[in-house]
Amino acid sequence: MRQFKPFAIVLLCITAASCNRKPKPDPAGQSAVPSLVAKAMEHTIEKNTGGDAQVKIDNNSLRIESKEGQFQMAAGEDLTIPPDFPKEFPVYLGAVLIQVISTPKGAYAMLKTPAAASSVLAFYKERFTADGWTNESTMHNAGMDMIGVAKGEHKLAVVLSRAKDETLISLTHTEP
User: Fold this and answer.
1) How far is the C-alpha of 67 from the C-alpha of 53, rounded, in Å?
2) Contact 17, 37 (CB under 8 A)
3) Which domains does the chain have, with CATH numbers?
4) pTM of the model
5) Can you point out the beta strands (E) in 105-153?
6) What pLDDT digit, counting tens, does each position of 27-72 carry?
7) How many Å apart are CA 90 and CA 95, to the nearest integer?
8) Count of beta carbons in the 10 Å neighbourhood of residue 114
9) How many Cα atoms sit within 13 Å of 24 on the Cβ side?
10) Hey, which bits of 67-165 come out as E strands?
11) Nearest of 9, 41, 36 to residue 23 by alpha carbon
């Protein structure tokens, strides 16, 4: 049996949303695209996993529930850190959350801040040391920094990059 592939589903969403067709609005005046995409995604997931799936698409978010677990994704600038986001992960003060993904095996968040990457990097190094994380990897290459740490069976990664006048912070948490 094939395993559920969340990124394939996201690609399907992006493809469907970028179609040039102008769908007819539903009776409430909303576009029919989200419900059509959701139905297509449910069918694809059910076909590939052999189980039921429920897909909900709202404004800037996507939620999938199947026997594989729950997958959630949201993007935009009016987001908040979800309550189930790992508490182990320090969030840089003043950073704005622009994307969040949670899966049965981990979580991902992307934030942006006007702070210099060197300040953000120093913050994460200090916090990880103070909180008892073991540094497993560090990399600096062409304007990008990465730190990988572990504590018990939990693994965290921070990737920093500069885009225009902002530092982008990618946080990834993987569970055992």
Assistant:
1) 7
2) yes
3) 1-68 (no CATH), 76-176 (3.30.310)
4) 0.70
5) 106-113, 134-141, 144-151
6) 555 555 667 777 787 778 777 777 787 878 777 777 778 777 777 7
7) 11
8) 11
9) 2
10) 69-75, 96-103, 106-113, 134-141, 144-151, 154-163
11) 36
